[in-house]
Design goal:
- The complex is a heterodimer.
- By secondary structure, chain A is of the alpha+beta class.
- Chain A has helices at about 45-55, 95-100, 125-130, 170-175, 180-185, 200-210; strands at about 30-35, 60-65, 75, 80, 85-90, 105-110, 115, 140, 165, 190-195, 225.
- The longest helix of chain A has 10 residues, at about 45-55.
- Classes of the chains: A alpha+beta, B mainly alpha.
């Protein structure tokens, strides 16, 4: 990857506001916090994810679901209209359903908590996709199509017939940079950090704001935590 | 007539070791594959199968060049017809080892006339099941990864192991049951084994030993195939302890149904002989299997639906009233209720036509049942907020690339690939049924390769 120059490199490195990457930590366990109170459903993180990771047309590693019945539409609760979003990408589970079922270990958990996908090993059986409770894995059904004639981003493109998904931007973590969806969020709704450090921003937020995991009852124990909105936001507030 | 000649030659590899004898002539067994020795109907049948196989191969090659985008599977419906048929054919192989092994271990001698058919059916069905995985995976060129990097917690690896074992057991069974007759007819497929009393006694010991392996292997095969689905907590419709018993019962229903049909066809073709009472008895067994199947389906549905909400109840509600509800009600009425009545009424069970109709309904009903499992388990986003899962292929400008659910129907390419594989299976089965002595032996039984001795042979030209 050294021969590639990321436009992102030109931007300032991750600041404390986005959380922190401590490269000196011996045993980090990376986690992401998504603040539903701050998310405005703008899809910036999804778009930067596409360009950072060279995600082909028709696929998204990261998406913004709208809580409720219709896209970008409020739902009704206690006679009032509410509007919230659920940004959704790989949950990087501590107990992933996908890695267990992969017949060739093409998807596997790293020691730092990131769930990886090896496009060179993958045979394209899509069992991981069946097993994933979050619907965040995407498959290269045909030859990947891109809006540009050249590859974008900082990772190798994946071939036809293989699976891909959010990687926690591990290529950036190695450089001490937070994942691209973190720094690109205009509402600073995403925070990244080390779950093993009780004083990290993510640990504190999860503690103080009652962070929850998606589909907690399935026991997958995601490394992505959501902060519920403290104040239900109506259309007029 | 060149096509017919091709057919004759192509059918030969269904067995192995087609060689000319030292005298220069084709050995007697292989002459059944010469077009001259075939009835016109058989020639047409083989030509149709060969054409189907070629079309299917062409479709697969096309799919290989384009990727799975030519199927109608997408991210929101990631498994389709191929996987459905994979588990269906695993199930169809059930009749075989369970009749052969169970019959032997529990002394059900009345099934002896169809034991060879049973093990042949198992062999061909499990072979097709294994082959159906090839078009389903995105990178068939990497299929060797399964053996180089097996991940032992994956139910798919367990299944590949048991499918391989089951196939080897089935082939061994077919050979063990036919080898004495092959040896009498001087076939090379007897691999030089003899027909002395000691040889035959050894055969019997081996058959019993194999039965002890075969029956547990059959149970395991269907259970493990069920666990591919039933262990997935992501899919409320699948995550159920009843999956393995249900798969065993579905396998028995479809396997027994197909065996009844094949037995009737082969009897008409003169390759088997048995009385109608055997078919009626298979019919009552099939009726019992259908009843168990219906009970398990009901029990599963009730357990999932009773809480009234949640990730297990919602799929049941969709199954009963959603876009695929027609399939479910077809399964219940045509696949379970009607054949159960046909087989429960003694007068109808004695009539071969009604037994055959019940068998067809059971075989089709279980296919639809398998389809329901795949469609209903997969076709809905597990996190059900809009816009849902990204579809996975570039959509035309102005159209969404997300879907909460896709109404899946197989594409033409998927149907053609399946046609090719079914043709291959039918070709292998037909060739084996022509060549191998399917009649259970005993003194005076006509060995298979000497087809001239058969009534069917006499009818030919």
């Amino acid at each position: 990857m050294a021969d590639k120059v990321s436009p992102i490199e030109a931007l300032p490195p991750a600041s404390r506001e986005y959380g922190e990457i401590d490269r000196t930590s011996k045993k980090p366990r990376w986690a992401m916090v998504v603040d539903q109170e701050r998310c405005i459903g703008c899809w910036s993180c999804c778009v930067i994810c596409k360009s950072e990771n060279d995600v082909p047309l028709g696929m998204w590693w990261n998406r913004i679901d709208t809580v409720g019945e219709a896209l970008d539409t409020p739902y009704s609760e206690d006679g009032e209209l509410r509007m919230h979003w659920l940004p959704l990408a790989c949950q990087h589970c501590e107990n992933p359903a996908c890695t267990k079922v992969c017949p060739v270990s093409a998807t596997y958990p790293r020691e730092d908590g990131a769930v990886m996908q090896d496009p060179e090993r993958c045979i394209g059986c899509r069992y991981c996709m069946v097993a994933c409770p979050y619907g965040v894995r995407v498959f290269n059904w045909g030859t990947p199509e891109r809006p540009t004639d050249f590859d974008t981003g900082m990772v190798e493109p994946r071939p036809v017939g293989t699976m891909e998904k959010c990687s926690f931007c591990v290529h950036r973590l190695a450089d001490g940079q937070v994942p691209s969806c973190i720094w690109s969020c205009p509402a600073q709704a995403r925070i990244f950090g080390d779950l093993n450090d009780p004083e990290s921003a993510v640990s504190r937020l999860i503690r103080e704001r009652a962070g929850y995991q998606l589909l907690e009852e399935r026991g997958t124990d995601p490394h992505v935590f959501y902060l519920p909105p403290r104040r239900k936001r109506g259309l007029w507030t | 007539m060149s096509a017919v000649t091709d057919t004759g030659q192509a059918a030969a590899p269904g067995g192995t070791g087609a060689r000319r004898t030292a005298g220069g002539g084709v050995s007697p067994g292989w002459s059944v594959f010469h077009p001259r020795n075939m009835s016109p109907a058989l020639r047409v049948w083989l030509a149709v199968l060969l054409a189907g196989l070629l079309v299917g191969l062409g479709a697969w090659v096309y799919q290989l060049t384009q990727g799975l985008a030519v199927t109608n599977m997408r991210n929101s419906m990631m498994w389709g017809l191929y996987i459905t048929l994979f588990m269906y054919f695993v199930g169809l192989s059930a009749g075989g080892l369970i009749v052969a092994s169970g019959g032997r271990l529990f002394g059900a001698v009345r099934y002896k006339p169809i034991v060879r058919l049973a093990v042949l059916e198992a062999t061909v069905a499990v072979m097709l099941a294994a082959l159906l995985l090839l078009p389903d995976i995105g990178r068939p060129d990497r299929v060797w990864h399964l053996f180089r990097y097996p991940h032992l917690t994956s139910p798919l690896i367990w299944d590949i192991a048991i499918v391989t074992v089951y196939f080897l057991i089935s082939v061994t069974y077919v050979w063990l049951y036919t080898r004495a007759d092959l040896a009498r007819a001087g076939s090379r497929l007897a691999f030089g084994t003899g027909t002395s009393a000691a040889d035959l006694a050894r055969d019997e010991r081996l058959k019993t030993a194999l039965a002890w392996i075969g029956l547990p292997a059959a149970i395991l095969l269907h259970s493990i195939t069920a666990w591919i689905f039933g262990l997935q907590i992501a899919r409320g419709f699948w995550y159920s302890a009843v999956m393995a018993p249900l798969f065993i019962s579905s396998a028995l229903v479809s396997g027994m149904g197909l065996m009844i049909l094949l037995a009737l066809v082969l009897r008409r073709g003169g390759r088997l002989s048995f009385g109608n009472d055997l078919v009626s008895s298979m019919g009552s067994l099939l009726g019992v299997f259908i009843a168990v199947e219906g009970f398990l389906v009901f029990s599963e549905m009730l357990t999932a639906a009773y809480p009234g909400a949640g990730f297990e109840a919602e799929p049941v509600e969709r199954l009963l009233t959603g876009p695929y509800a027609g399939f479910f009600w077809f399964e219940v009425v045509a696949g379970l209720a009607v054949p159960l009545v046909l087989l429960a009424v003694r007068r109808l069970r004695m009539d071969m036509r009604w037994v055959a109709i019940a068998a067809v309904l059971a075989v089709v009903g279980i296919f639809v049942h398998r389809l329901n499992i795949v469609l209903n388990g997969l076709s809905y986003a597990t996190v059900s907020y809009p816009p849902g899962v990204s579809i996975g292929t570039a959509q035309p400008a102005g159209e969404t690339s997300f879907a909460l659910s896709l109404f899946y129907y197989p594409s033409v390419i998927e149907w053609l690939v399946v046609l090719g594989l079914l043709s291959l299976g039918a070709l292998v089965f037909t060739a084996a049924a022509l060549y191998l002595p399917l009649r259970e032996g005993g003194p005076g039984a006509a060995p298979g390769p000497a087809l001239q001795a058969d009534p069917g042979g006499a009818a030919m030209e």
